[in-house]
Design a protein that fits this description.
With about 280 residues, the protein is an alpha/beta fold. The strands form 2 sheets. Strands 1-2-6-5-4-3-7-8-9 form a 9-stranded mixed β-sheet, with helices on both faces.
């Protein structure tokens, strides 16, 4: 169990800017590289199907960009955000309302998933001692760290009494851009997003809007070009699939070719300098 206290000089710089920075920090797993932008994703534990689809679409659309998804491992939107990040090949950072030891992580039902995050190269960070169990008041406390770490905060959905509203207000207090997903008129889960949009938050309907908020230049669409004439059949299939960047899982799902042969073709194309992988997504070089 690789839990270590993080030396203060190695703390994320933006976390030192908040009014009440933590006194100590423990980490587990891998923190995002310095050049990575951190997007904190928050929302209801009682996530709707619409909220899930919006969360997955927006995060998977960030594949191939230097973005880490920050959330709290709670059920609902938090879990959806972490899973979407892994599907997109993005780094994800968990800020739990507890210590980082296996037997205290909350919720208990996500402890197996926590191991998946670590195995995929993600990380955990907490101000609580490693063996400290969760407390009700730890969750609003940890939310200030989630916002403090971030370059922007994405609100998926929140009802009128949702604790997510407090986190969204912190974004304004900490001078972080707040991004909100719109919902149908009259939907109770729309209360938080629509409220903050009226107050000046950025309305988000596609991943490009998130990239703009994070000040990341989107890639230009790949120019139409003919495939090299000497490509093998499987290599040509991959080449044609990469008109737009795709994660390895998307490539595997998009072809009925044997997995081993497909992976061999990917390596061959990469060695020839025809394709390359960046931030979890493959694209034409």
């Amino acid at each position: 169990m690789d839990i270590r206290e993080l030396e203060r000089e190695k703390w994320p710089a933006q976390l030192l800017e908040i009014p009440q920075p933590p006194e100590r920090l423990w980490v587990r797993g891998t923190l995002p590289p310095e050049e990575t932008k951190l997007l904190t994703v928050v929302g209801s534990r009682a996530m709707t199907r619409y909220g899930q689809e919006a969360c997955e679409k927006l995060i998977i659309g960030l594949a191939g960009y230097p973005v880490s998804i920050v959330s709290g491992l709670a059920l609902g939107v938090d879990t959806c955000a972490h899973k979407a990040a892994l599907s997109a090949g993005l780094h994800t950072l968990v800020v739990p309302g507890s210590g980082l030891a296996d037997d205290v992580l909350y919720p208990r039902s996500n402890r197996g998933f926590a191991k998946e995050i670590l195995k995929a190269g993600g990380g955990f960070i907490s101000e609580y001692a490693p063996d400290q169990s969760s407390r009700v008041y730890y969750f609003p406390e940890r939310n200030r760290i989630m916002v403090g770490l971030s370059d922007a905060v994405l609100l998926i959905e929140a009802g009128q009494k949702s604790g997510t509203l407090i986190t969204a207000r912190l974004a304004s207090e900490y001078n972080r851009e707040l991004l909100c997903v719109p919902h149908r008129i009259g939907d109770p889960h729309a209360f938080g997003g629509h409220l903050f949009i009226r107050l000046g938050a950025t309305l988000v309907t596609e991943s490009l809007h998130i990239l703009e908020a994070l000040k990341i230049s989107p890639r230009l669409p790949a120019q139409a070009c003919e495939a090299p004439s000497d490509l093998e059949d499987i290599e040509l299939v991959i080449w044609n699939m990469l008109e737009e960047p795709k994660t390895r899982d998307e490539i595997l799902r998009g072809s009925d070719t044997n997995v081993g042969e497909l992976l061999t073709a990917l390596v061959a194309l990469e060695l020839r300098g025809l394709i390359k992988e960046e931030f979890g997504a493959w694209h034409r070089a």
